[in-house]
């Protein structure tokens, strides 16, 4: 069982690496271009296509707007809760008193991550009933890990000499946390937040199974009625939204990166 | 719960086997694809950037959406499941393989060339073995991720334990709905943990002592 | 132990196994650069000699070296190995005939020492049995006990040991030519001196043609039969023996490169082998201490050199230290001051000063004990050289 901490570390690496990497600023420009182009193409298609009665029931402007907004709401609500819960929890796990727990907690979270999102959603629905709240809770549980993990990894990776230097200057543990550790861990934490948000956009399309709303309705209806117009619209819109959220995350990462890093 | 499992033991074992079989075969295929593509691109900075970009973008596409998209060309059943699972599995492997190959010390490559190893021998005997630990980490990330994706694939009638979850969903409120969902969900978690452990063992077995962490 | 016949190596060396290297009008241009990296270079490396390429960084010395085994393809010109034009040969085949050693050895971390060393013989399809014999033989040659080190991985070795394995790998298929790129740049000064001594011992046995790139002029003086001083574009400023370069620097450039204290650098040209070696009492591991002490007292020695089975010195204890145990023990003094026969006198001085000892043990081939050299002897040589330098 000595392999377990290694598992945690190994799995945390790819997510932990804030990967502005080689795509750099070039990628930061191309990505929104792709998104805008995709949205435009979709709008052109939507305006010119002759849609049947059935198709209009989900692809009509009003239902479509509801689905998009619903999807955004799911993502944002879950995302916000994840931030408020996971970052403080992650910080707590790096404090001397709880540091010993960080290994087991991350291990548990990692194992939990292997649970299929769809299973989680359905289980919660069996317990709490259908609806938006259930969907959000499932999403929160699901997106917790990347943020938690990157917060712990980011703070742990801060050079201990810097922490010592801070304490040596007479800073309190709290001010070292806020003035040294957290600022230095920001890029890693933000990378985790971005990963979580992208994951949320994708997983939110499963909310439809528990009547949680969102763009998933286009896909399930499309599959059920074998209407590829709905199916493709849903898939494309979710993918575009995910790319958009990913892009926003990258921009924020660039801007929030402490200068000198 | 126990009764539920007892009475459906054969079915659970069969679907569990299907699930693992789907994931393992797709992971093998994805490893072959990911490593091959990585070998083709890693020497060229721009191609590397392109591959990394595509793999990052690919990972943002929601699995459920891709499965939907695949229905049009592939229909229901095993085929869209295989394509989707392989697609997602290939991305982290590709990314890690590129990182691993690019991370091989240039002086070692030159050393290999300098003692008369050809391009292919250098790749097979020096670069790939040295990149292997990183590639294997990619394989582990991939398999963990696609265990869940394979569960969603049951919605388009793909094979595996996801079937229990959707059965549970369709009968929610009914007698065994919760048990079915639990069986599917926990089954996937257990299989994922076991598979990961096996991959760790594979690492122990295939990574030479000289470069083990 | 020493006599004047071994004074200069190149003079009357037995048959060389090395091959001559000849570069004719060789140049290398890179597309984006106006000035050639190497412009129209002619160079003759005689068989069986060590030739050092020295020059400021960016002068193209490494490019020259890598063109010999065609890791870098020359833009024009010919390269001849033992008179045979190899410019059109298959580069991989060619490289298997040329040993190549880089800084820190360039060992493959995922292969054991034995696998690393056996790579080239394997590619040449030697029978397995011959390969294993060869590996042991080579490890022994570079001073590593085969049984201990054969199955180790590079990271389980010290920097100096890795470098030794690198040399063994370079020599594995018994190539006539050995190319070395800053081979001893990555180790500490003491280890570097040891490795240089060992290379000279090995060369004493093998007589390969060795081309070494270095930026360390002292290393060039110590190792080289000849030195090529290069300027930007691999222009040969001077090509000559260390003596010639020190006493008749061709241009100001060479003088600058030699730096101040040319007279003192002459010390580098006097080898330990040129001096009078002393002999002292030696002891074997396991011998009864009483016998050794008696032998030492008879000879009037207050210290003895303890040797291992292969006659390699382990430590140099005083009689009192020795008497602490009834039989001579085999522990190793890692700070033992040793110099090679070919070491320059200034190295010997360094070694003694670093170890705070008034003498050093001199090693012959395969690190075997050859004698001792006293501080006074070295100081006398220094005084003589200084006076000669002042007079000239």
Q: Overview of this structure, please?
A:
The complex is a heterotrimer of chains A (261), B (213) and C (392). Chain A is mostly helical and 261 residues long. Chain A is built from 11 helices and no strands. With 213 residues, chain B is mainly alpha-helical. Chain B has a single domain, classed as MetI-like (MetI-like fold), CATH 1.10.3720. Chain B is built from 9 helices and no strands. Helices cover 36% and strands 20% of the residues of chain C. Chain C has helices at 61-68, 91-96, 113-123, 128-141, 146-149, 159-170, 189-206, 217-223, 242-247, 252-258, 262-265, 289-299, 319-322, 345-355, 375-391, and strands at 21-28, 38-45, 50-54, 76-81, 84-85, 98-102, 177-181, 209-213, 226-231, 235-240, 282-284, 305-307, 313-315, 338-340, 359-363, 369-374. The longest helix of chain C has 18 residues, at 189-206. The chains are: A mainly alpha (261), B mainly alpha (213), C alpha/beta (392).
Short account of what is shown:
The complex is a heterotrimer of chains A (about 260), B (about 210) and C (about 400). The longest helix of chain A has about 35 residues, at about 60-95. Chain A has eleven helices and no strands.
Q: Which geometry of chain A do the CA atoms define? A: elongated
Work out the oligomeric state of the chains in this entry: heterotrimer
Main structural class of chain A? mainly alpha
| Whole-number total of structural domains of chain B | 1
Helix count from the secondary structure assignment of chain A: 11
Unreliable stretches of chain B (pLDDT < 50, length at least 5) are none
The CATH topology of chain B corresponds to MetI-like fold
Residue share in helix of chain B: over 70%
| CATH class term of chain B | Mainly Alpha
Rounded to an integer in angstroms, the radius of gyration calculated over CA atoms of chain A is 21 Å
């Amino acid at each position: 069982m000595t392999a377990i901490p290694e598992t945690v570390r190994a799995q945390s690496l790819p997510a932990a690496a804030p990967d502005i990497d080689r795509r750099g600023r070039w990628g930061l420009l191309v990505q929104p271009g792709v998104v805008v182009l995709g949205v435009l193409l979709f709008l052109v298609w939507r305006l010119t296509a002759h849609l049947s009665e059935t198709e209009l029931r989900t692809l009509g402007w009003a239902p479509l707007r509801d689905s998009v907004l619903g999807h955004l709401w799911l993502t944002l609500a879950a995302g916000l809760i994840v931030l408020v819960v996971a970052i403080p929890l992650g910080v707590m796990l790096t404090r001397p008193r709880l540091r010993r727990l960080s290994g087991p907690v991350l291990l548990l979270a990692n194992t939990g991550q292997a649970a299929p999102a769809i299973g989680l959603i359905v289980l919660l629905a069996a317990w709490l009933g259908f609806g938006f709240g259930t969907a959000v809770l499932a999403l929160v549980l699901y997106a917790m890990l990347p943020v938690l993990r990157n917060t712990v990894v980011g703070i742990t990776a801060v050079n201990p000499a810097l922490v010592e230097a801070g304490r040596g200057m007479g800073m309190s543990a709290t001010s070292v946390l806020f003035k040294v550790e957290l600022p230095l861990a920001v890029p890693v934490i933000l990378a985790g937040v971005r990963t979580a948000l992208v994951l949320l956009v994708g997983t939110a399309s499963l909310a439809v199974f528990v009547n949680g709303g969102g763009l998933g309705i286009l896909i399930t209806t499309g599959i059920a009625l074998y209407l590829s117009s709905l199916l493709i619209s849903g898939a494309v819109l979710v993918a575009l939204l995910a790319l958009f959220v990913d892009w926003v995350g990258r921009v924020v990462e660039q801007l929030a990166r402490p200068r000198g890093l | 719960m126990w009764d539920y499992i007892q009475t459906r033991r054969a079915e659970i074992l069969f679907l569990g086997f299907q699930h693992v079989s789907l994931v393992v075969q797709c992971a093998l295929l994805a490893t072959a694809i990911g490593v091959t593509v990585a070998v083709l691109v890693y020497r060229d900075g721009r191609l590397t950037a392109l591959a990394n970009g595509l793999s990052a973008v690919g990972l943002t596409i929601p699995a459920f959406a891709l499965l939907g998209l695949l229905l049009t060309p592939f229909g229901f059943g095993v085929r869209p499941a295989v394509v989707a699972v392989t697609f997602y599995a290939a991305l982290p492997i590709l990314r890690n393989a590129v990182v691993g190959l690019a991370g091989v010390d240039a002086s070692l490559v030159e050393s290999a060339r300098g003692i008369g190893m050809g391009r292919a021998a250098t790749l097979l005997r020096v670069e790939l073995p040295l990149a292997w630990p990183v590639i294997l980490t990619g394989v582990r990330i991939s398999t963990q991720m696609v265990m869940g994706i394979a569960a969603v694939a049951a919605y388009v009638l793909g094979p595996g334990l996801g079937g229990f979850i959707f059965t549970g969903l369709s009968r929610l409120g009914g007698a065994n709905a919760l048990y079915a969902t639990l069986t599917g969900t926990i089954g996937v978690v257990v299989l994922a943990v076991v598979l990961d452990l096996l991959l760790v063992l594979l690492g122990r077995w295939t990574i030479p002592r000289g470069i083990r962490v | 132990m020493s006599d004047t016949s071994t004074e200069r190596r190149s003079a009357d060396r037995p048959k060389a196994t090395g091959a001559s290297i000849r570069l004719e009008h060789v140049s290398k241009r890179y597309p984006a650069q106006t000035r050639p990296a190497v412009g129209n270079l002619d160079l003759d490396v005689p068989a069986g000699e060590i030739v050092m390429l020295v020059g400021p960084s960016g002068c193209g010395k490494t490019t020259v070296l890598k063109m010999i085994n065609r890791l870098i393809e020359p833009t024009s010109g010919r390269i001849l190995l033992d008179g045979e034009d190899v410019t059109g040969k298959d580069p991989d085949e060619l490289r298997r005939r040329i040993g190549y050693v880089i800084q820190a050895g360039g060992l493959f971390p995922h292969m054991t020492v034995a696998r690393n060393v056996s790579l080239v013989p394997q590619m040449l399809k030697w029978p397995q049995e011959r390969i294993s014999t060869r590996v042991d033989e080579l490890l022994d040659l570079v001073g590593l006990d085969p049984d201990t080190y054969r199955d180790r991985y590079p990271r389980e070795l010290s920097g100096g040991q890795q470098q030794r394995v690198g040399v063994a790998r370079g020599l594995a298929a018994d190539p006539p030519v050995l190319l070395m790129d800053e081979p001893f740049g990555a180790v500490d000064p003491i280890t570097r001196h040891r490795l240089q001594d060992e290379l000279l011992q090995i060369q004493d046995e093998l007589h390969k043609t060795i081309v070494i790139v270095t930026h360390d002029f002292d290393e060039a003086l110590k190792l080289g039969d000849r030195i090529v001083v290069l300027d930007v574009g691999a222009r040969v400023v001077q090509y000559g023996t260390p003596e010639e370069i020190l006493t008749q620097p061709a241009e100001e450039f060479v003088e600058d490169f030699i730096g101040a204290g040319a007279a003192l650098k002459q010390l580098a040209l006097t080898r330990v082998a040129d001096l009078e070696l002393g002999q002292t009492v030696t002891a074997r591991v396991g011998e009864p201490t009483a016998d050794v002490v008696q032998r030492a007292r008879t000879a009037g020695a207050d210290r003895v050199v303890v040797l291992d089975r292969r006659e390699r010195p382990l430590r140099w204890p005083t009689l009192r230290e020795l008497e602490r145990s009834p039989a001579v023990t085999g522990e190793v003094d890692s700070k033992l001051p040793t110099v090679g026969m070919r070491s320059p006198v200034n190295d010997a001085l360094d070694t003694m000063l670093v170890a705070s000892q008034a003498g050093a043990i001199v090693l012959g081939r395969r690190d075997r004990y050859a004698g001792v050299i006293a501080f006074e002897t070295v100081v006398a040589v220094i005084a003589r050289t200084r006076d000669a330098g002042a007079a000239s």
